[in-house]
Amino acid sequence: MDVTLWYRLGAIGMALGTLVLAYGFRLVPRENYRRYAVLVAVPLIAVGAYVLMSLEVGVLETQTDATVFGLRYVDWLLTTPLHVLYLGLLAGASRGDIGKSLALMAGTIVFGFAGAMVAPPLKWVGFAAGALAFLGVVYYTVTSFEQAARGNGTLALLRKLRAFVVVLWLIYPVIWMLAPVGLGLMQINTSGLVVAYLDIVSKVGFGLIALSGQLSAETASTATEVAAD
Ligand code: RET
User: Fold this and answer.
1) Which pTM value belongs to this model?
2) Which of 14, 68, 160, 169 could form an SS bridge with 46, CB 3.0 to 4.6 Å?
3) Which residue segments constitute the domains of the chain, with CATH numbers given?
């Protein structure tokens, strides 16, 4: 079985997810459009990446003769910081802290890509640097984002999304380590399938949780306003 089949299915899944999330524009108030657009942009970018990957565009060979789909890292480099940005904007964190967490998230992906391309022992240096940078991202979300969210009623949603992100995103380095770019214990067909599945769940799932959280927060605040009248 060819891994590009999983990428074709991935493209279809992402496209459906994008359509469902785009419908959310009809539900959220106009003043939240910019923040909401981040949620729709993420699977939309992935549709492009998956279509091109299924056509084998951007396929690279590593120093250890493993195959890397370069566009997967381009996708992650754009979309994971976008989700971190959403968390920061939702919490109302400072620009400085949001900026640092975005840089660390981009660093995670860049180091992971570099590690994928080179041979050991440098490979593991790249992996470790990526893992450290990712810990930094988690650190910002549990310190500065958390504190900012306390003040403005978004704490419950922030915590829910953060738990989702931390648990699901931690599977990526595990797959990376098992895949041909890491220890080579898993074939690219399997790692490609697992990552396509994880990508859909993380990208569309995050959007759906955020949408439903935003809607229930609104209902709650409208209810309070009505009660106050
Ligand atoms: C790498 C290897 C280096 C160490 C770490 C990694 C983490 C990758 C992550 C990817 C998340 C991707 C998502 C895509 C879809 O939305 C680069 C595998 C920590 C966290 C969420």
Assistant:
1) 0.95
2) 14
3) 3-217 (1.20.1070.10)
